[in-house]
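Table S2 (continued). Query chain:
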Amino acid sequence: MSAPRRLAELTTEEAAGALRAGTVLLLPLGSLEAHGPHLPLETDVIIAVETARRAGELLAARGITALLLPPLPYATAECARSFLGTASVPAETVTAQIVAIAHALAPTAGPLLCLVNAHLEPAHLHALRAAVSAAEGSGCRVVFPDQTRRPHVEALGEEFRRGGGHAGGYETSLVLAAGGRVDEAARRGLPANPADLAAALRNGPADFRALGGERAYFGDPAAASCVEGERLYSLLAGMVADAAAAALDSSDTGR
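Corresponding output:
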């Protein structure tokens, strides 16, 4: 399968020919935040970019043109604020930036902007949903495939379902499969942290340390594997490709 072209690598004349109705713009969304002692700060960006790349390949196989946008590496990351290297921005800023990008690149009757998100803090997810609503109100087409909602969440593994996946087996497997940097010595020596992060965050944002994540990880990093990462990417990329194709089909048929 052919990899999606990167918009930033095109000339302005090439972009003018590519930014047309029926094109899917894949926007990877991540964060710059602590991910345990074994994963890089850009973990979510790595996962989002790799998911978007693979989704673009799936769309190309269906005859749909996809372009890969540069990733947005900043997000609302209040839970990891106390860890050095984390850069949290207000949710309103996240929403406004996405809406502005939609206006600039995917105006009415233009391409579809598809948000490929790998940062799962609740406030950030709310910001993305708000961006979709705001863009729709102004005539832009934006779709957000949300892996935290059914039916997707059911297929992504027990650790993900119970909300313990920050820098655990789920994310570590994805970084391994993407060829990202993983400190293997640190990873193999980490004990599982079974704290239910999702349940704890239902009461609002709180520092990872207060939630039982003194080293900014939850779940079981030592159980991660490339094989599991490949399985997860197949699901995530398929979810994104299906959502983008469905949005195009809905627009074409006027539903």
